[in-house]
Amino acid sequence: MKISARLALFAIVVTLAYLGLAVWGMGGFAAFFSHAPLVVVVLATLVMAIASLFTEVNLSSGEREDRANRWVLPAFGVIGLLSGFLPAYTDRIDFWTFGGEGVRWLGVLLFIIGGALRLWPVFVLGNRFSGLVAIQPGHRLVTDGIYRKLRNPSYLGMLITAVGWALAFRSGVGLLLVALTMIPLVARIHAEEALLRAQFGNEYEAYCSRSWRLIPGIY
């Protein structure tokens, strides 16, 4: 089973709205697409959005959910709206920007790498990958492949993508928004780990002892 039609439509609308905010922030299509790195960012975003339509990501509360963590969804939404517009806008007015086209291309590279890392685990987990903190029917712990040493590779991919987006606009404000994202993200990680620990007990504890939570060698 693939992503539901309703969720697919939502993903498409959000993607186009996000890109639209960036185009608006840059002052229109001509200004935005005058930068080759930003053209590549748009193409990469569309490819990622299309790829996501072939995943089994869902919003199912499954057999067991930590409903107290749902506050992170609107938090991510607000930060996402700001990230869509502000980096592009600060780029246009040259507020707290740095570097030149080299920084933009570095951002493109990170954006693509982060996007791949974000989507890879989604395909690995299948219908166990929910937008909610929940245990799905038939849920089992995955500790091999991309999860062997890293417990939250998709979240790391999300952060790398966000940094890449900010750098594509040479935006210091964009990097601050990435730092702000860490607040709901860390809360989400702790909620997920608490639920997995309760579900899988010693098996999960053993996995934690030999893996990193988010950034290898650091956290």
From TrEMBL:
GO terms for cellular component: membrane. It is found in: Membrane. The keyword Zinc-finger does not apply. It is a multi-pass membrane protein. Its main location: membrane. The keyword RNA-binding does not apply. GO terms for biological process: methylation. It holds the Pfam family ICMT. GO terms for molecular function: protein C-terminal S-isoprenylcysteine carboxyl O-methyltransferase activity. The chain crosses the membrane at residues 7-32, 38-59, 71-90, 102-120, 155-187. Keywords: Membrane, Methyltransferase, Transferase, Transmembrane, Transmembrane helix. This is Isoprenylcysteine carboxyl methyltransferase. It comes from Pseudomonas silesiensis.
